[in-house]
């Protein structure tokens, strides 16, 4: 379904796939390595070299957008990620993730995208003072199949639980409220510093874990309702959201989605008063509520071939876990399509 995000343009697809080719590193240049891929237009990359390994593979691929080695992160963000990065502000849960071989530039790119997204999220919040947002952050890494809290690194491995309401959740994952954009940037920096890094032959400073930074955006609002108890419940339409308010269980509300955007809604009764007339019993409630949207930034650990990286011992074990989890991710994505 077409949707409009603060990024401006209308997007038809729910999955947007881009490729970024990084420039050759100093080490690669000194070894006289050649660039293997060329972006021939905004959508197509072509394999430039002859390789026996790839003799059965296509020589070109088409994506929603491709970015060449001279392209700056700002442009990758603007044209490849901004729409998705800001979609949580309009009620669409979204995820941006980087996938690719070790040393292909995932961490470099995700860092820039997260930074730009944080700037734009706060810009949007400042430009819409009539809306009251709270931003919370949680962050975890998955290293050798163990989930660690990057905001609370001493807490040890965390358990995954199946919650009937919320789906799969990470038990006891810390969630911190960001006071402002500077505080949020500080928290993200702290998480990145906690992440497992190890040296491999392909990358001197390789991320060996998957990192998930989750921004929880809460849109706070309050309203007053007047209703007639004998009618059982009453439907109230507010901002295109349909509330069903039941009594007498204080307030229980169900959000009925007009689209597939809005996922959760929580309401708290602040105060109420009631009175009778001849035939009816009325209750007036003041309700404070918030809607909750999620934006995930995922920097995956890189896939690699053990033979190419000369990995052994701990590095080899990590590599096996990384490759297995990426394979599982491929299965998930295939299923989603
Ligand atoms: P990955 O996370 O995929 O293993 P990194 O993001 O760590 O790879 O990148 C590997 C190296 O290449 C790092 O030193 C990084 O600074 C550099 N690099 C990656 N992408 C770019 C880019 N677009 N421009 C300049 N340097 C880059
Ligand atoms: Mg990395």
TrEMBL record:
Name of the protein in question? Kinesin motor domain-containing protein
UniProt binding sites for ATP: 100-107
Which residue ranges does the record assign to the Kinesin motor domain?
A: 14-337
Keywords assigned by UniProt?
ATP-binding, Microtubule, Motor protein, Nucleotide-binding
PROSITE patterns recorded: KINESIN_MOTOR_2
Per the record, the GO terms for biological process are:
microtubule-based movement
Recorded source organism is Ensete ventricosum
Q: Does the keyword ATP-binding apply?
A: yes
**GO MF term set:** ATP binding; microtubule binding; microtubule motor activity
SMART domains named among the record's database cross-references: KISc
- On the tree of life, the source organism's domain of life is Eukaryota
Family, similarity comment: Belongs to the TRAFAC class myosin-kinesin ATPase superfamily. Kinesin family.
Q: Could you name the Gene Ontology cellular component terms for this entry?
A: microtubule
What Pfam families does the record point to?
Answer: Kinesin
| InterPro entries cross-referenced by the UniProt entry | Kinesin-like_fam, Kinesin_motor_dom, Kinesin_motor_dom_sf, P-loop_NTPase
């Amino acid at each position: 379904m077409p949707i409009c995000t603060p990024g401006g343009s209308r997007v038809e697809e729910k999955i947007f796939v881009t490729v970024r080719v990084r420039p050759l590193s100093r080490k690669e240049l000194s070894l006289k390595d050649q660039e293997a891929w060329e972006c021939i237009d905004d959508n197509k990359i072509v394999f430039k070299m002859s390789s026996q390994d790839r003799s059965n593979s296509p020589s070109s691929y088409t994506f929603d957008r491709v970015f060449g080695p001279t392209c700056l992160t700002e442009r990758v963000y603007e044209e490849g990620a901004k729409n998705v990065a800001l979609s949580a502000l309009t009620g669409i849960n979204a995820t941006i993730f980087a996938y690719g071989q070790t040393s292909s530039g995932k961490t470099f790119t995700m860092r820039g995208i997260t930074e730009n997204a944080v700037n734009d999220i706060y810009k949007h919040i400042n430009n819409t003072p009539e809306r009251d947002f709270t931003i919370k952050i949680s962050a975890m890494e998955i290293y050798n199949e163990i989930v660690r809290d990057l905001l609370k690194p001493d807490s040890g491995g965390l358990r995954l639980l199946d919650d009937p309401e919320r789906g799969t959740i990470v038990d006891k994952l810390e969630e911190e409220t960001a006071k402002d954009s500077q505080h949020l940037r500080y928290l993200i920096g702290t998480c990145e510093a906690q992440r497992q890094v190890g040296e491999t032959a392909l990358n001197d400073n390789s991320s060996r874990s998957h990192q998930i930074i989750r921004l929880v955006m809460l849109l706070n609002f309050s309203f007053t309702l007047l209703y007639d108890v004998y009618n059982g419940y009453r439907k109230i339409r507010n901002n295109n959201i349909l509330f069903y308010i039941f009594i007498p269980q204080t307030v229980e509300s169900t959000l009925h989605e007009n689209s597939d955007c809005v996922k959760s809604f929580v309401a708290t009764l602040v105060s109420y008063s009631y009175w009778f007339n001849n035939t009816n019993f009325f209750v007036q409630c003041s309700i404070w509520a918030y809607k909750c949207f999620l934006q995930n930034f995922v920097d995956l650990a890189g896939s690699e071939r053990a033979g190419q990286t000369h990995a052994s011992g701990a590095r080899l074990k990590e590599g096996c876990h990384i490759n297995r989890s990426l394979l599982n991710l491929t299965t998930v994505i295939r299923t989603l399509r």
